């Protein structure tokens, strides 16, 4: 039925594979248009890198692959170069890069920007909080969803910089989303498919939503705001002790299932003066807003957002 996204922290193990050959790379015309303000690369996090080199033949040419194993945490950045710019012998990849290519002196950065939990939604319906007259309270409705166990995704931001004419120039960038719940996942970072990213998780995320029923305020665009957990009816339940019993049907109208019988149990009207057409209402409600009470704020505590609100008119004249 859909997915709900939640963020959380985790430690990941990465493997960067650099495919290096002598083929020059084309530069996009848009790269000549740089921002007016100077570009500053992100802060590089100090981390240990285990590097290994593999050689194999590719047709008539010899192709070598550099493999870097890195541990990275949330909001940290790993930086590396294909050439340190001093000399071919001083390059950490001097044995790989036999000929100059445009990206050889660039500063490559990889940032783990966020982690996402994508919860499968197994139940969903729209409900409202009624007035005594049975219209949505303040014309506000809410979406109830039941979340199952999530899938965890890591989001990386890759940027490559070149230092030219006394300033940093952005040469390549990409955002990569990788699922990390199962086996190791592999994605390409650069647009030339020369830098490959392999991701494996070092355990479960330390914070994630529990499975169960949640609700959020309905929006016209269908997007969900922050989810709130509260005892709430599942799609096949109709319990007045929980939210979600006054819900929208297939025709788009709000109603109470079997309401003619059940509403008599929670709402009792007593006539006080028939001539003056004055009556008193009794409601079986745990949390409510009294329309005629000047101190409405005393009811609007924590339960304003989470509890059942029913509008009570103690004395109603016709």
TrEMBL record:
The keyword Lyase does not apply. Pfam families: EFF-AFF. The keyword Signal applies. Keywords: Signal. Residues 1-22 form the signal peptide. One of its GO terms (cellular component) is cell-cell contact zone. One of its GO terms (biological process) is syncytium formation by plasma membrane fusion. Gene3D superfamilies: Cell-cell fusogen EFF/AFF, domain 1. This is Glyco_hydro_38C domain-containing protein. It comes from Toxocara canis (Canine roundworm).
């Amino acid at each position: 039925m859909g997915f709900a996204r939640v963020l959380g922290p985790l430690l990941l193990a990465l493997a960067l594979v650099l495919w290096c050959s002598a083929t020059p790379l084309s530069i996009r015309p848009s790269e000549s248009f740089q921002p007016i303000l100077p570009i500053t690369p992100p802060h590089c996090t100090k981390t240990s890198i285990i590097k290994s080199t593999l050689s194999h033949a590719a047709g008539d040419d010899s192709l070598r692959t550099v493999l870097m194993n890195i541990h990275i945490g949330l909001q940290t950045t790993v930086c590396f170069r294909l050439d340190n710019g001093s000399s071919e012998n001083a390059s950490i990849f001097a044995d790989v890069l036999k000929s100059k290519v445009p990206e050889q002196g660039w500063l490559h950065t990889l940032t783990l920007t966020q982690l996402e939990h994508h919860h499968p939604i197994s139940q969903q319906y729209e409900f409202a909080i009624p007035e005594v007259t049975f219209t949505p309270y303040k014309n506000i409705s809410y979406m109830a969803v039941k979340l199952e166990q999530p899938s965890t995704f890591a989001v990386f931001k890759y940027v490559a910089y070149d230092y030219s004419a006394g300033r940093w120039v952005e040469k390549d960038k990409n955002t990569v989303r990788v699922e990390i719940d199962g086996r190791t996942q592999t994605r390409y970072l650069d647009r030339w498919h020369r830098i490959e990213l392999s991701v494996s998780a070092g355990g479960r995320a330390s914070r994630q939503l529990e499975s169960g029923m949640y609700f959020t305020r309905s929006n016209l665009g269908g997007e969900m705001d922050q989810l709130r957990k509260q005892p709430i009816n599942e799609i096949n339940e109709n319990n007045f002790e929980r939210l979600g019993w006054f819900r929208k049907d297939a025709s788009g109208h709000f109603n109470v299932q079997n309401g003619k019988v059940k509403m008599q149990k929670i709402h009792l009207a007593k006539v006080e003066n028939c001539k003056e057409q004055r009556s008193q209402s009794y409601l079986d409600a745990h949390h409510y807003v009294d329309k005629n009470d000047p101190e409405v704020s005393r009811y609007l505590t924590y339960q304003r957002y989470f509890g059942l609100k029913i509008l009570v008119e103690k004395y109603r004249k016709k």
